[in-house]
Design goal:
By secondary structure, this protein is of the alpha/beta class. Helix content is 14%, strand content 25%.
Length: 174
């Protein structure tokens, strides 16, 4: 698809589609279809996804969403690859970059951003409400991240994490 079409659908997504009511609202399936239709024109979105209103993905070039995902309202996704069957609760944030701060002679706001490795959320993950995922984090298959947790680094498969900073609470397999 050419650049002009991508820009058109990006503008249509942010100006109209992202503002439409959620899936549970009467007519919500149609609104969701339209949101996903627009998003698929400027980024990768899998099949059977529910993406609620006010989900921010920047220009979408560094975000990919797998199949059967549920992204709830007012989430912010940046520089992340999301697997299949992932649920992200309202107001969660996946950060994909950070500010440079190494030069003490230059104000931090003038140093720009640091380049970060893309974050990964593997299959069958659940992020609780207002979870924060810091840059370069890898959330392994089957994890649950508790509401309000701040997660960083690489998790264990099927782990349940909570707190600030998030720590392993227990493993779902045990």
């Amino acid at each position: 698809m050419n650049k002009a079409k991508k820009v058109f659908f990006l503008a249509l997504y942010y100006s109209v589609a992202s503002k439409l009511p959620n899936y549970s609202f009467p007519g919500g399936k149609l609104y969701n279809w339209f949101r996903v239709f627009c998003m698929k024109r400027f980024m990768k979105v899998g099949t059977d996804c529910r993406i609620m209103r006010n989900v921010y993905v920047g220009i979408g070039s560094d975000v990919a969403i797998g199949d059967h995902c549920r992204i709830n309202e007012s989430c912010r996704l940046d520089n992340v690859w999301i697997g299949n069957h992932v649920m992200i609760a309202r107001e969660s944030v996946v950060l994909g970059k950070s500010h440079a701060f190494s030069d003490l002679d230059v104000p931090m706001e003038q140093q720009g951003n640091t380049i970060c490795r893309q974050g990964v959320i593997e299959d069958d993950v659940w992020l609780g409400i207002r979870a924060i995922v810091l840059p370069q984090t890898v959330i392994k298959k089957g994890c649950i991240i508790a509401a309000g947790a701040v997660i960083t680094g690489i998790t264990n498969e099927y782990g349940i994490y909570g707190g600030v900073p998030a720590k392993l609470i227990r493993n779902r397999k045990n």
